[in-house]
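User: Show me a protein chain along with its predicted structure.
Assistant: Here is one chain, sequence first, then C-alpha cells.
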Amino acid sequence: MRRRPRLTRRHLVATAGAAALVAGCAPDRKTSNAPATTDKIKPGGKFTQTAKADPPGFDPSTRFVTTAQVLGYPLDRLLAWKTGPDVKYTDFVIEPSLADRWETPDAQTYTFHLRPGVRFANIAPVNGRELTPADVKWTLEFLSRTGAASGLKPAPAAAMLEGLEHVETPDASTAVVHFKEPFAPFVNTIALEYSGILPPEVAGLDGGYERHVIGTGPWQLDPASSQPGLRWVYKKNPTYFRQGLPYLDQITQLIIPDDATANAAFQTRQVDYLDYTGLTGDLVAQIKRSLPGAVVFSYLSTEGKHLYMNVSRPPLNDERVRRAFLLSIDRDAMIKALSGGKGEWAVAGGMPGLFTPDEVRQMLPVDPAQAKQLMSAAGYANGVDLTAMYPGQKYGQELVDQWQLIQAQVKKTGINLTLQNVDPTEESNRKRTGDFQLEITPKMLEGDLDETVYTVFYSKSAGNYGRINNAALDQLVLAQRHEPDLSKRRDIWRRLAQAVAEGAWSTALYYSTHYQLWQPYLRDYYPSLGHRGWPLTQSWLDA
C-alpha cells in the first residue's frame, strides 16, 4: 500500500492489511490505456454504457448493494477507494474525499474534518447549499436507522453500521462518529458508493430517496433526459468541488437486457464500455476479431458464487445430506468447463488470499464415495430429491451452466437435482421468505469481508437466506467486527470460514476470470476492486 501523510497509524495498518489480503488474487492491469499528460486531455464528450435493467431505486438504505453502481455518479463519500495508473486493481487504498482528513483515537471513535467549500448540486430543493457536518450526521443516522431516523422502517444498510451510538457536530467542519463497541469495518464501509452523503431535504420529497437522488458528486441525474426502460442520463455537475473535473459532460446508461444486443452495440461503437456477468473469454475473443482496437481488461473476480442451502427444512437440515452434496462438487471440472481453465477454488466466508490453495482443497474435499455413505447413513440410500432455483439470465448463462454441471455431478451420489427457472423478483422474494432449498448468488467482496460474513452467516441478519442459526458462527462474526487489529481479524476470518466448511452450512464455488472491454478512445479509465460502480471522474474521450 502507498502511505498517505494524512492517515493515522491505525488506518495505515488496517488499510495496508486489507490490501495485502487481496493483493495477488488477480493479474496486474495490462492495457494499452496509458495515462495521458494534462495538456492532451480533451474535456467534454458523452460516455455511453449498457445496463440490463433500470435501477431498482436510489435509496441506499434499502438497496445498499444494488444501488451502489449508479450512486457513485451523483454522490460523494467521506472517503473513497483510490484509483489510477499507479494503483493495481486489487489494491484497497483509501484516500480523502469529502473529508480531507480523519483520525481514530480509538476503535469506537472516528473524527472527520470536511473539505471546505463543497456544495451540493444546484438542484431544488437543495439549491447548491454548502455541505455541513449535519448532512454527515443525517446520512449515517438514516442508513443505520438511529437518531432522527430511528422511527423509519428497518433497512438492510443498518447492519453495516451496527452499534452506531451517536454523531457529534462540534463545529462547522467536523463530524465525530461514536460506536458502542469497537467497529473495525467502518472506514472501509463508508468508502463504498452506497455510503454517499445525502441531503436531508430530499427525504421530504414525494418518493424520497427511492425516486430522487441529489448530491455533491461529479454527475447528477437528469430526469428530463432519462426514460425508464430505455436510458438513464447523468450530466456534469458544474459546481463539483474538484476543480476542472469531471472531464466527461454526460454519462448515459442504455437499458439493453439482451447480451447479444449489447455486444453488437459495442462492436458498432454505439456504446463505449461493456461489462456484464457472462462476458466470457470466447465472447471477448469474438468481439476483438471484429473490433481489434478494443481494450480488454481481465481479472480474477472475488465473486465466489455463493451456494445458499436452506438448512431450516428437510432434508438440508441434516448435516449429512449437506455434506454429501458438497462432497460431490468438483470445482476443477467446473473451472475447466466454464472458466476456460482459469480460476481458483472459493471458500464460503473467505476471499482470495485468505487461505493457500492447498488449505482450500483440504477444507473442500471431493469424495463421491464418502458422499454415498453419508446419504445412506441419513436414510437416503435410494437417493433424495432436491430443487435448485435460479433467476433465468439475471446472472448470465454461466450460472445456468454451473447448475447443470452440479446437477450431473451430484447425480452420481444419488442426489436428484431439479432446476427451477423463476422470475428474478420471485427468486428474491423466495430467498427472503425461506421458500427454497438451493440457490446460487454471485457474492462479491464489498470493501470489507464483514459485509459477506455478517450478511450470510449471522443469525439475525436479513440476508441470512440459508436460515443458519449457530452460536459459534455468531460469536466469530461479532468478534471480527470488534477487533481493530487486522492480523487478529484475519485469524478470526480464517476460523469462521473453517467453521462454515466443517458444519457444511454453505459453500462457494470458484473465482473465475472476468472481463471488461472499452473503446480505445476512452482514456484514463482504471477499474478498481474497491468500486462497485465505474471510477470515471478523471476519464475522458479521445475522439
